[in-house]
């Protein structure tokens, strides 16, 4: 099959399990695509080709001696890639930072262990921002991750390399991690479905130094069924899907009619007033039409957010970078944003951090109470179209909308632009809720034309299956 990379992940899995395709054949196909496309795309930091082929040969040997009464691993022979915040045994985890020593990880992290146990084969490590802190995947150790639909544009962050890899057909799907939008933002930028599960549904992954419990792992995929397949492989047994069936089984069932509240309110609006781009509103309108056409009741929801949120979230989000083990003589190798937020985190008292964590717990209770009037909350996925590479940092070359050269390197300006770009994502992490980004609109008028824009649906606790059902109902 010359077009192996065009197969949906669920069909590729079936071909691997039946023996129609060998794991080696599939692995080598995707490795060849990485070799061809990565120099211009910047999706991968590290490619582990020889190791992947060895694992593929072992997977084929397993299939050859497999007996019908013995189950195959659920992702037998399926290629994946891990963002370079996730430990994979024997492979360097860079965390996107020039300030860290390059040492191979001694063991798999929780996410890599779950997928290895499910039979998946890792092709390498994908591009991330330094320590996963930003909504764009640019750092000082490797070329930036670019958007497959417009190479001058960013693929988003922090799972930007993984999103670019899936969108460009370098892997069939990929796990990402999301502490403030890091699955949903690059999914929206790259025209993918990105699911952030609720808290405690999937092994936490690289969430050390995460006192607010913000970070969860979840799938980046081209369809709801593909996302469900990956989620089935990594979800903690008994978590999330209340009816006890698998997510892939559930995604094929149509949801009941739902009450969906649509909102442009954001907890960032007080400190960073913003106006959504027309393309973001076009995506929201498209989402409303699709959901209404599917039989759901969509109406305006007014959500009030406490204006103390931005300071509290930023304090919790950056606490981990303050504790990162970095030799003093290598601090200068950090990006301006990381260096600034690290210094502030180190100067902050434990009492201040605890105060912010207590506020976020109250914010969660207040927000959940408001959301409870609705089955789902609908927002745009992003407030702006995918940004040019270098736009947030001021390191690019101008089209009249870029930061001025005097601004380049200003961490607070960088951070503000990120919050204005993705103002509806981080509060979902604080509340521990599941949410999905769905690519419902293209600026050129049809799928693959122009730039992708999406909607976000936020669900109640345990509604991952419902979110996937709705995405499938809308044609994704």
Distance between the termini: 24 Å
As laid out across the biggest beta sheet, the strand order is 6-8-7-12-13-11-9-10
Q: Major beta sheet, specifics?
A: 8 strands, mixed
Rounded to an integer, what's the Rg over CA atoms? 21 Å
Quickly give the structural class: alpha+beta
**Percent of residues in beta strands?**
5-15%
DSSP E strands, number: 13
Extract low-pLDDT stretches.
Answer: none
Question: Which bin fits the share of residues in helices?
Answer: 25-40%
Large-scale geometry: globular
Report the order of strands and helices.
Answer: HHEHEHEEEHEHEEHHEHEHHHHEHHEEH
Our count of helices gives 16
Indicate the multimeric state: single chain
Overall mean pLDDT stands at 94
Description:
With 476 residues, the protein is α+β, with helices and mostly antiparallel strands. It is built from 16 helices and 13 strands. The chain has helices spanning 9-18, 23-41, 49-64, 110-117, 160-167, 184-190, 224-234, 247-251, 278-293, 309-317, 319-323, 336-347, 350-371, 411-421, 426-431, 464-473, and strands spanning 44-47, 79-83, 121-126, 146-147, 150-154, 174-178, 193-196, 216-221, 259-262, 297-300, 376-380, 435-442, 452-458. The strands form three sheets. The protein has an eight-stranded mixed sheet with strand order 6-8-7-12-13-11-9-10, sandwiched between helices. A three-stranded mixed sheet has the order 1-3-2, sandwiched between helices. Strand 9, helix 9 and strand 10 (297-300) form a beta-alpha-beta unit. Helix 7 (224-234) runs antiparallel to helix 16. It is globular.
